[in-house]
Amino acid sequence: MAETLRDRAALEFALTLRRRWADTLYPRLRAEYDAAAASAPLHRPEDVATRVHALPSYGGFAWLERGAQKMLWRAVMNALSPAGEARRPAGDPPDVVAGPATLELDPELRLPEWYTAWDIHVQPGGVWSSRLAARVYEVGAKLVMLGDNDDYKFHRLFVETAIPRREYRRIVDLGCGFGKSTWPLKKAHPQAEVIGIDLAAPCLELAASRASAQGLAIRFRQADAASTGLETGSADLVTSTMLIHELPLDALAATLREAARVCAPGAALRILDFQSTGDPVRDLAMREHGARNNEPFMPPMMAADTARLAEAAGFRNARWTAFDERSVGRLPDLAWPARSEWHFPWAVLEAQRDR
Ligand SMILES: C[S@@+](CC[C@H](N)C(=O)[O-])C[C@H]1O[C@@H](n2cnc3c(N)ncnc32)[C@H](O)[C@@H]1O
Questions:
Q1: Does a structural domain hold residue 341?
Q2: Distance CA 206, CA 25 (A)
Q3: Which of 49, 54, 207, 258 is most buried, most CB within 10 Å of its CB?
Q4: Domain co-membership, 78 together with 125
Q5: Could you tell me which residues come within 8 angstroms of residue 289 by beta carbon, excluding any fewer than 6 positions away?
Q6: pLDDT per position as a tens digit, 263-281
Q7: How far is the CA of 237 from the centre of ligand 1 (A)?
Q8: In angstroms, what is the span from residue 141 Cα to ligand 1's centroid?
């Protein structure tokens, strides 16, 4: 992707910083915490932050999390911009590779204020502001997984291990982005009508284009996940991956109600997102990641009882299980294998629509 030596060096540097932050700095912070905790145990969870903030490695750890992320976006933007990627005037016809995927854009849709107010993930202009933003997001999303997701294994694992194996007529993927969560649903269930919903028109254009290039007949539809415009009781599976931590709690509750509305009786709900681990250092780092990565709604989402919210919306048997993105995918309980490096506490919320 990077054509010049300068762009390749910038990308390499940003990724190396990120890798060392995860595999060297985080374990060092953790070891410092464990040493301090051994000599002076803490009894109240609220004291953990004070203790962690006083550790020698904390300043570097906190700064590097945000600094390396900003550097990565800049490096990706620089690498894409000179190639003239998608910098075309507004009003150009959609940039869709002809093929079986379809695109339903809504020119009347007003993006919610909470959605445009933050450059989510510290990506300048968010994922919605231009075609370049969508391309930058596509490339950045691959790079941040540090080579472990070049073939989108993460979402394939989700589909293979967290989705009930049965015939589906209609599958709805809420907050589908540029489509990496939606394509594997169609590949695994080619007979189903698969619909990806997102607010961001540039992401949907890219999603449809990439789906068509793979021969996937997916409907990509611009709408709020809380108001999809789809027929009541028409879906037998509703999914979302990496969406709900981006929603304020009232929008999350409305999205769960909308999911319940479009679900047929007995339909499945599967949501991939984050949950707390019970490890005070990891949970604090995750809470603070929300602030350092411009994800203001992540900490309230993680503190909320989202399983209860799903049940209040009309689902039953709602429960979270852990998800190990490296190999096995969905785990039977909300417990993750031990890992020394920093990683996200991925988890799956599973529930069933009342009959
Ligand atoms: C982190 S991305 C995840 C994309 C995709 N599901 C994946 O796993 O790669 C979150 C996506 O949700 C979209 N989004 C956020 N709030 C939304 C809402 N209320 N309705 C529809 N899409 C939304 C964003 O535009 C973005 O594309």
A1: yes
A2: 36
A3: 207
A4: no
A5: 65, 295, 298
A6: 999 999 999 999 999 999 9
A7: 17
A8: 13
